[in-house]
Design goal:
Order of helices and strands: EEHHEHHEHEHEHHEEHEEEEEEEEEEEH
Strand content: 25-35%
Radius of gyration: 20 Å
Bound molecules: guanosine-5'-triphosphate, magnesium ion, sodium ion
Largest sheet: 8 strands, antiparallel
Strand order of the largest sheet: 14-13-19-10-11-18-15-16
Distance between the termini: 28 Å
Number of strands: 19
Shape: elongated
């Protein structure tokens, strides 16, 4: 048995800062390079624990968060109205979620839509109130914890932020959720934590990472236990033509092990099940965004969950995005499992 990284989906309205938050954590600049500044695909990035510890300093050890969870596996989703199905796919995969909003903008149509996806799948989540650096009079403390930077703001700025947080608390209440600023939460099982941050300056990001690790450790370890020898289970994100590889699929593996030459079952757009054999498995390096790193893939003979991978195999052309991916095994009727799972999406 192994504990895998929790899959953490980042959801929210367009331009509220999902990709920028992940950029800060990865030390990358993907948001700035996107066409029109808009995310149009689901992204995936593994953040190992040592990266989280580097960002958090001694904050994690102070909170008694152990090395139980190997890291966080982030899914970036598009916020633009056109991408409902991608948001659903990102939401369905998540063990945990970050609902991000621009603190100056508040709830917007896709914020509600994201919240409904989280309700539908009963995904535990935190709320991130982003762009605090844009509050009038805010004094930036690059990379500081929220507690530290907040205590160094003028009284009027603190009050302004708290008013905005209470508007968010009010909106969440209307939607059926109890919430509080994270440092005033008394019961993490019944109240949603709201963490004010700036994805641009990194203020508060420490608490976001610590909270995600803490929640995963406290509430999710059973669900994150995987059998490293079991046939893999995963979800297809996208079908893509890649030079030199032909038609490939990007997938998230959330259970078991996947090996080259494994026979896998997938769903076709005709709703038939395709069985094909894996020719190669490619995996991006940790901290690399899957959709962005053609050159930085490693070819592997096998991969254990959780992992974001690219798979080359024959006949992938008509596989549907969102399809389950299952390794064929003798003791289960994989074809029937796939059909059942499709019914549940
Ligand atoms: P979509 O994926 O298209 O839905 O957008 P997104 O939620 O990923 O937002 P993105 O990261 O693309 O950020 C949108 C804009 O807001 C960019 O210009 C960012 O630089 C800016 N931005 C994001 N976070 C912050 C922040 O904390 N402070 C400030 N000042 N700007 C931010
Ligand atoms: Mg984005
Ligand atoms: Na954007």
């Amino acid at each position: 048995m192994k504990i895998r990284s929790p899959i953490v989906s980042v959801l929210g309205h367009v331009d509220h800062g999902k990709t920028t938050l992940l950029d800060y954590i990865r030390g990358s600049t993907i948001a700035a390079k996107e066409a029109g500044g808009i995310t149009q695909h689901i992204g995936a990035t593994e953040i190992p624990n040592d990266t989280i510890e580097n960002i958090c300093g001694d904050f994690i050890s102070k909170l008694a968060i152990k090395d139980l969870i190997p890291g966080l596996f982030f899914i970036d989703t598009p916020g633009h109205a056109a991408f409902t199905s991608l948001r659903k796919r990102g939401g369905a995969l998540a063990d945990l979620a970050v609902l991000i909003l621009d603190v100056n903008d508040g709830f917007k149509p896709q914020t509600y839509e994201a919240l409904n996806i989280l309700k539908m799948y009963r995904t535990p989540f935190i709320v991130v109130a982003n762009k605090i650096d844009r509050l009038f009079g805010w004094e930036v403390h690059e990379g500081a914890s929220f507690r530290e930077t907040f205590s160094n703001q003028a009284k009027s700025v603190q009050q302004d932020l708290d008013n905005k947080i209470y508007e968010i608390v009010g909106e969440l209440h209307k939607e059926g959720f109890q919430s509080e600023r994270f440092d005033r939460v008394s019961n993490f099982a019944s109240q949603i934590s709201i963490i004010p941050i700036s994805a641009r300056t990194g203020e508060g990001v420490i608490e976001v990472l610590a909270m995600l690790l803490g929640l995963a450790q406290e509430y999710l370890t059973e669900q994150l236990e995987i059998d490293e020898n079991a046939p893999a289970k995963g979800t297809v994100l996208e079908i893509k033509e890649e030079t030199g590889l032909g038609v490939t699929l990007d997938a998230i593996i959330y259970d078991g092990v996947l090996r080259t030459n494994d026979e896998i079952a997938l769903m076709l757009s005709s709703e038939d099940v395709l069985v094909t054999k894996i020719r190669s498995i490619l995996r991006p390096l940790p901290l690399e965004e899957m959709r962005d790193s053609k050159k930085k893939f490693r070819k592997l003979d096998e991969v254990v969950a959780a992992a974001g991978i690219k798979v080359a195999a024959p006949h992938l052309d008509d596989v549907v995005s969102g399809s389950p991916l299952r390794v064929l095994s003798e003791d289960t009727d994989v074809e029937q499992e796939i059909l059942n799972e499709i019914d549940n999406i």
